[in-house]
């Protein structure tokens, strides 16, 4: 069955304590390559039917109202997953 | 600066209570399109330098050891983000 992926990240200007913790752990484990880490959410919505504009519009609405908090998060991606 | 995105999802065969809760909320809000919802994590690793095989190999190692729990999660995607 088709799956649509929704990607949500914390707004860029906000502090991301989880990301900072992971970045700190990377440095302690000897990996100095990465200057910052940010952590967000990835949703997979599975349904029965074709991936058409109506479904994508419905997912966009759901992503912005239910799957993310518009005050602190941005929806950074919505795409059909080739599963 | 280049960013590499790492996507981690719970293993397919595992129960995803958060996903079930969101799926239930969707149904209650009148959206019957989606049969299931699964929720995972999305990491953005920012660094200074070219995106080459060495960095991608390092990210793969970090993704499998630090960013995901191999017992209950799968790394489902690693790609350079065109930010």
TrEMBL record, chains A, B:
* Localization per Swiss-Prot or TrEMBL: Cytoplasm
Q: What is its EC number?
A: 6.3.5.3
Q: Which pathway, metabolic or otherwise, does it act in?
A: Purine metabolism; IMP biosynthesis via de novo pathway; 5-amino-1-(5-phospho-D-ribosyl)imidazole from N(2)-formyl-N(1)-(5-phospho-D-ribosyl)glycinamide: step 1/2
For the keyword Nucleotide-binding, the answer is yes
Under the heading Gene3D superfamilies, the entry gives:
Phosphoribosylformylglycinamidine synthase subunit PurS
Q: Subunit notes for this chain?
A: Part of the FGAM synthase complex composed of 1 PurL, 1 PurQ and 2 PurS subunits.
Q: Which HAMAP family match?
A: PurS (MF_01926)
Name of the protein in question: Phosphoribosylformylglycinamidine synthase subunit PurS
Q: Which gene encodes it?
A: purS
């Amino acid at each position: 069955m088709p799956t649509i992926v929704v990607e949500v990240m914390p707004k860029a200007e906000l502090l991301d304590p989880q990301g900072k913790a992971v970045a700190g752990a990377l440095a302690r484990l000897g990996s100095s390559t990465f200057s910052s880490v940010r952590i967000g959410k990835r949703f997979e919505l599975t349904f029965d039917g074709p991936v058409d504009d109506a479904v994508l519009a419905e997912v966009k609405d759901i992503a912005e109202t239910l799957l993310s908090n518009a005050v602190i998060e941005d929806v950074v991606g919505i795409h059909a997953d080739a599963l």
